[in-house]
């Protein structure tokens, strides 16, 4: 009966978002309160549980997500992303153009949130397609596959960062494992899949052509690459140091402080402020205005994350986790496959990768200690499931269709299939990694 009530709560969330077109944050709040009543939580405790869940989750993530948005904004507007794309195109040449676009999406997609990366890089892909007189879909799919994978798998993107916090995983290790899974996933769903799309017709609208900056206005390639990837260097490097330091009383506490994801992101943004900003003639006020705009762009993401935390806390406070744990013991399904399946189903129903991932986390998080599974791999399995088969209820589906100006049929054959490949190959990569960890 308890499991049925949980499913009803999640079904309500899906209906509110898909049918009623309610804002996901409001949908999470309504579903959380409803779940509290259905599951027998005393009415005077429901509001407190909702507030605690929101506060606990956001407390770990606000700095990471906000600083990530600021860094991405500056990487985009300074021309660093354009410089990286142009540099990779020169290295790979026309014959390996899809590999160049995939690597561009991977590098630039780490600090950029998906929607920002899409709007910034897709016009660059159109310019490349026009220059070499080839299909924009053939050029664009590898780029979008890489952006999609970074969005679903790699911190500091909102969903994987939130999952790390909920599961008590290590952000540096998650990032390291994520790269191991990301590379083959991007290759298969990007350049290899794109070989089948050379003849897909696309006529991108002139409105979406990139405004290319002159070469002399772009930052150097070394500066662009180092600044864009600094969070990765710091997260992986400090995690390795903290593992080596262990309980060292002299350096252990200091390394632990430096390896904190929030500290890493603050350092990265401060460095970018000078390297891509002040040292290149930007005024401090202009930079701060850009940072303000960046926080506006991700305000709703923060609220959705908070709403997911509220639902998770309701499930925890009502003791649902123990009941579900007992029920799952009889399922002869690998925990990583189970988490991926739940996420994929919610993703197909709701359309939002972030909502799908965080909703699943609310169910799975309390069970991590009983599932005998690496929490870092659990983050990646859910991240893969959250990208499953994008279709009509996903904003990304329509962004792709309108930007590339292709038919609904071709959108499903290219975009939807690419997202499905990312989800399936990502899961296979996680399961293989699980054998060796």
UniProtKB/TrEMBL annotation:
It is found in: Cell membrane. The keyword Protease does not apply. Its main location: membrane. It is a multi-pass membrane protein. One of its GO terms (molecular function) is gluconate transmembrane transporter activity. The chain crosses the membrane at residues 30-50, 57-76, 96-122, 134-154, 174-197, 218-243, 263-282, 294-315, 335-365, 377-400, 412-436. Keywords: Cell membrane, Membrane, Transmembrane, Transmembrane helix, Transport. Coiled coil: none annotated. InterPro entries: Glcn_transporter. Pfam families: GntP_permease (PF02447). GO terms for cellular component: plasma membrane. Belongs to the GntP permease family. This is Gnt-I system high-affinity gluconate transporter. It comes from Algoriphagus faecimaris.
